Amino acid sequence: MNLKSQFASITMSQDLFHSNLPLELESGEILPEYEISYTSYGELNADKSNVVWVIHALTGDSNVSEWWSGLIGEDKFFDPSRHFIICANLLGSCYGSTNPLSINPKTGQKYFYDFPELTTRDLAKSLDNLRNHLGIHQIHTLIGGSLGGQISLEWAYILGEKLSNVVVLASTAKSSPWVIGLNESQRMAIESDQTWGEKSENAGIKGLEAARSIAMLSYRHPEDFQKKQSDLDEKLDGFRASSYIRYQGHKITKRFNALSYWILSKTMDSHDVGRGRGGAGKAIGQIEARVLAIGVDKDLLFLSSESKYIAQHAKRGTFREINSTAGHDAFLIEFEQLAYILQSFYLENN
Ligand SMILES: CC(=O)SCCNC(=O)CCNC(=O)[C@H](O)C(C)(C)COP(=O)(O)OP(=O)(O)OC[C@H]1O[C@@H](n2cnc3c(N)ncnc32)[C@H](O)[C@@H]1OP(=O)(O)O
Ligand SMILES: N[C@@H](CCO)C(=O)O
């Protein structure tokens, strides 16, 4: 379906891929059929060599020109007049792809809590099925941050020589105990909501509010709070940081649900590109594409050293660092630094 684009003369299309073939999951469970919603910008060139595939993070969607507007758009680093840019909503997420609120074809009812656990490998496989469906035989650049970076690594492993460059932002080869612990606290917050367990779209929504507030503390750095949320006046209550964190918790409930959040946070936990492949370092060493791993110096969630590890173990790896008090979320905010790093990477390597 072609949509009115925000760009003057660029094609933007929002489409749905329906797979009647089942997706066999790492857990042994099966998604009998599934849909993937995806957005693309620009046109494939004659030899299909201009594909830039973006993978969104935990609560993102496929409208990459909105949430990555500093990097994608007319005259931006990835420009739809030159690149064919595509982003698919991840399975499990609530922006158009099959998720816990979709109908389970086996029962004719919504999945709710019966939705299967998905790994980053399962998600990479589902994206590869979409790629095949679209007849894309070569991806110039695959790029993703956080959970999107984890899936990018998994997919890069599968893609082999069909991928030229993979850019992994603020991410990791294997989720650390720290990340898993933080995600478990967030799921505990969801569980403590009395509505969790109900077969309702709003189940666990207050819990999700608390979960996002915990998550925000790992997405930012204390210096970011110091800069933006300090109170100028002396007070005993009603602090700016309190209202900010509550606001952020509430904001997510207007656009996301606890079931999708639960599933995708579990996906993040089980991520390990080295599972069954002799360890993360060995698996990364088998990726054929050039690997650019970008860390954020003040990322408290996925440490910059984890990005360095990825680059060090790749056959053709480069490590770069963003300097930002924004912390983990810098990959969604620091467009100038990102564009500079990407520019120099392509100049040096392509
Ligand atoms: C439909 C969709 O939205 S699709 C999904 C798009 N989102 C994604 O892809 C996920 C990735 N994006 C994100 O995580 C975020 O949007 C980021 C990281 C890029 C930016 O985060 P933001 O929340 O916009 O920035 P920031 O932390 O500065 O907070 C700003 C907000 O907090 C509010 N705020 C700031 N300080 C306070 C305070 N002391 N008390 C209350 N509210 C406050 C601001 O008014 C602003 O509100 P707004 O979002 O309604 O405009
Ligand atoms: N802020 C990101 C999560 C951290 O990668 C999101 O909401 O998707």
From TrEMBL:
It comes from the Bacteria. Pfam families: Abhydrolase_1 (PF00561). Keywords: Acyltransferase, Amino-acid biosynthesis, Cytoplasm, Methionine biosynthesis, Transferase. InterPro entries: AB_hydrolase_1, AB_hydrolase_fold, HAT_MetX-like. GO terms for biological process: homoserine metabolic process; methionine biosynthetic process. Its main location: cytoplasm. Residues 51-333 form the AB hydrolase-1 domain. It is an enzyme of class 2 (transferase). GO terms for cellular component: cytoplasm. The active site is at S146, D299, H328. Pathway: Amino-acid biosynthesis; L-methionine biosynthesis via de novo pathway; O-acetyl-L-homoserine from L-homoserine: step 1/1. It catalyses: L-homoserine + acetyl-CoA = O-acetyl-L-homoserine + CoA. One of its GO terms (molecular function) is homoserine O-acetyltransferase activity. It is found in: Cytoplasm. Its EC number is 2.3.1.31. Substrate binds at R212, D329. Homodimer. Transfers an acetyl group from acetyl-CoA to L-homoserine, forming acetyl-L-homoserine. Belongs to the AB hydrolase superfamily. MetX family. This is Homoserine O-acetyltransferase. It comes from Algoriphagus machipongonensis.
